Amino acid sequence: MITLTGQTLTIEDAKQVLYGGAFVTASAESVQKVEKSREAVENIVKQKKVVYGITTGFGKFSDVLIDAGDAEQLQWNLIHSHACGVGEPFPEVVSRAMVLLRANALLKGFSGVRPVVIERLIELLNAGVHPVIPQQGSLGASGDLAPLSHLALVLMGEGEVFYKGERMEAITALSKEGILPLTLKAKEGLALINGTQAMTGMGLVNYIEAEQLAHQTEAIASMTLEGLRGIEDAFDADVHLARGYRQQTEVAERIRRMINGSQLITKQGELRVQDAYSLRCIPQVHGASWQTLDYVKEKLEIEMNAATDNPLIFDDGEKVISGGNFHGQPIAFAMDFMKIAVAELANISERRIERLVNPQLNDLPPFLSPSPGLQSGAMIMQYCAASLVSENKTLAHPASVDSIPSSANQEDHVSMGTIGSRHAHQIIQNVRRVLAIELICALQAVEYRGTEKMAPFTKDFYTEARKIIPSITQDRIFAKDIEAAASWLLEIDWNSFIHGNLPTT
Question: What positions are modified (2,3-didehydroalanine (Ser)) (predicted)?
Answer without folding.
Answer: 142
